[in-house]
Amino acid sequence: MELKLIKNKLPSRLYEILEKEIKSLRPAQEKAVKKGLLEGKNLLVCTPTASGKTLIGELAALKSILESRGKAIYIVPLKALASEKYNDFKKRYENAAKIALSIGDMDSKDPYLVDYDLIIMTSEKLDSLIRHHSPWLSMVKTIIIDEIHLLNDIERGPTLEILITLLKKLLKNVQIIGLSATIGNPEELAEWLSADLVEDDWRPVKLHKGIYHDGEIEFY
Which helix (H) or strand (E) holds 122? Predict the structure, then answer.
């Protein structure tokens, strides 16, 4: 699907930014659009690494922001990943949205975030903000959860599960986009999220499997 085919569904400012870098959507991105990504539908996206999952989240977030519907939160599991996403988003969208990184003080409401549109943070930080009743959270309309398969992680899973449960109760009509390369039970997770499932096996570089032995690789 060529990007220009969804031009009428995107805010003009967002389209102007994307057309400089993107001519056509990748398979998972096309499937997400067809399943209601740009109409506010909840989606669980399960596709290989580098298949374009992040852009799916960006489309949902920036559409909400530029159409003045509400803020967007991008949740990642690690501070280092949060910093990486912040730098990437800042580079691409700094002239279209106010972008913030919130990964620090766990005892603060971070009231300054009321002035920002797209906020990148860890699940632990968002959990802290909810517990401190940060008033600006009611303005959030889009939530992107990267590496959502960590729900099954012994350390981070319980916090993430409680966090998603709270968000679904606290925020009405919020759009939730879950992103992951590997999920063992995607249908069950999609049902729990009240989301449509987007699956695809396309990857930019073909994956070969083999066995290495005595300096040689035998592919199969």
Answer: strand 118-122
Q: What 3-state class would DSSP assign to 219?
A: strand
The 10 Å CB-count burial string (b at 16+, else e) for 23-45 is eebbbbbbbbbebebeeebbbbb
Confidence (pLDDT) at 204: 66
Question: Cα separation of 12 and 136, whole Å?
Answer: 27
- 169-208: pLDDT as tens digits: 989 889 999 999 888 889 999 999 999 999 988 676 777 7
**Residue reference for tokens 């290989």:** 48
Rounded to the nearest 10°, the torsion over CA 14, 17, 23, 29 is: -40
**Pairing assessment for the beta strands 210-213 and 216-219 based on DSSP bridges:** antiparallel
Question: The pTM is what?
Answer: 0.90
Whether domain 3-219 has CATH 3.40.50.300: the reply is yes
Locus of tokens 């922001």: 65
